[in-house]
Amino acid sequence: MVYRNVVLGGLVIGFLCAGFAQSGLFSAREDAAETGIDFLTTASIAPLEAQRASLNPETFVLASAGEERICLAHAEKRAAGQSGALNVEADCLAVYPRLLQAVVWQRHDDGSIVFHDRQGRAVIEFAEGDGLQYESIEPGEVLVSMSALGVGDKAVN
User: Mind telling me which InterPro entries this protein's record contains (predicted)?
Assistant: First the structure.
């Protein structure tokens, strides 16, 4: 009788262990620990589209001819991504004083970018230049270059 209870108890324990092993309850946690994945944190990360929407506005680096003077302008994008509000930093006074009047940016079909004042008048217009850089084309007497400050780039002081 004792022998039969020991055998039945062993079988029950064996079936329980096999059930746990089959369910992956222990192995999944061990694998996660080995790979360094924190499933609770990973599940809380927003999808890439939501991350992009929450990123800081794009930053334009504006430089005078010869890059003697540099300043930043922060461009927000509207839904279509072809225009938006523009916040020009005070340092832009030294690059081109009229830049401080710019409050909106707009990208045209030809790739040019125009900064507008509150009345909708063009303050400065940029055309695509070499690489990722833009060059001012209007007004003609002003030479200003513009490029986008990348995520890994350092801000200009």
Answer: Protease_inh_B-barrel_dom (IPR016085)
